[in-house]
Amino acid sequence: MNSTTEKVVIIGGGISGLSAGIYARLAGFEAEIYEKNAIPGGECIGWNRKGYHIDNCIHWLTGTRKGTELYDVWKTVGALSDDTEYADIDSFYTSTYNGQSATLWNDLERTKKELIALSPEDKDEIEKFIQYVEYSKQCLFPAKKPMEMWGMKDYISMGSTMMDFPKVMKEFGKLSLEDYSKRFRHPLLQRLMCDYLPKSYCTYSFLVSYATMADGNGKIPMGGSLQLSLRMEKKFKELGGKIFYGKSTDAIIVEKKNATGIKLADGTFISADYVIPTVDTYILFNKLLPNKYMPKELKEAYDNPKAYPATSGFQVAFAVNRTDAAGETTFAEVEPVKIGSRIFDRMYVKLYNYDDIYIKDDKMVIQTCITQSDEDFDFWKGLSKEEYEKTKDALVSEVEKRIEKAFPEMSGSLEFLDAWTPVTYERYCGAYHGSYMSFVTTPAGKQIKMKGQLKGIRNLYVAGQWTNSPGGLPVAVASGKFAIQRILKKQKRNTEI
Description:
The protein is of the alpha+beta class. Helix content is 35%, strand content 22%. The strands form 5 sheets. Strands 6, 7, 14, 15, 16, 17, 18 and 19 form an 8-stranded mixed sheet that branches. It has a 4-stranded parallel sheet with strand order 9-2-1-13, covered by helices on one side. Strands 10-11-12 form a 3-stranded antiparallel sheet, with no helix packed on it.
């Protein structure tokens, strides 16, 4: 590790902030992280209720397969190691409708066989679906360096490993899941294709998600989301980094076009040679910096929520009698439930029984989520404190009834643990419209790819999942690394860290 007295100040102790801090130390910089909450991780956390652990984030982690660039990053930041244990789950999810069920197994041949048996009339479309999932296995997240640092060699290498993936983008790059589902005749298959992601999502996102699981590159590390974040915090501290909790940032200080530090909520000025904000870009450009610095494509996205929706959820956790069906996720039809002006008739239940942290005595945790959009956020946000609590409690009761009807084996054993809404995400993480990822990639919008630097400000490098839609943990962890690599390039130092 080269030593330097230059200091990198990072706003936010989520995955991207911790990643930036770790790589800053590996590059020899002093590194300080300022986090408004009491623990690290941002949205990648969990919490305890009634002796049970509730996991907020990892349904599966991209980059768990050794030999991938993303795995190397997760390993470097201490999130994963060669000894990491993973949950033993053999399916992506199951959908039910009209008394029938269909499962997307990690074993693609098994999936194909079962789907064709269910709907022989869809045989051609099912075979095509499986083929394109196979192609999508080639879509690996490039995490070695930012793309502006790529040379011809890097592009050739990517082209040779992703030879078939362009076929996926050509066919499904601008096709919504809702339109794609109509290619299938069987009503259950139509629902299977639309259950996992919002219907407005581009189909390729779904294919890549399933491919990641099927390829063994999307596993669930034991210990859950919070433990992963704590392992990164430990690595950062071991390298000599400093993290300050309960420290909210009010502004990034810019003098003569140079970012010189940050001002905390208590008025304290923290000087810096380099500033790396990892917060939601809405906060970055509407609180920490003047709005004039917001890139044009980002402004367009915020001004057009129909083409660039943000997705959140109304989520509830219960304890139920334990079963042996480890980690299953099942989407089921339910009696319509109204939230604000919108009606929902599908709901999923995920079983958290693959790790002892989710089990107490003879019970385990289950979680359900009703997907929420921008307009749902406005509904929740518009409620008074009293109305909010009343609405939440009433919905918990409605959700409980529907789970008991859809999953009769759980009837009578449900014990309420906790419920949270899009407003919870906004309060805890400053998440724009309560979103747990970045903008949804829809046929109507373009993928947001922010440059690491802003016009008009030197020594400021942006990181975080909002720099590259649809966001998520891969973008978060890689963007922290990329921010440090951009600083090293500016300093004409070796960027391979």
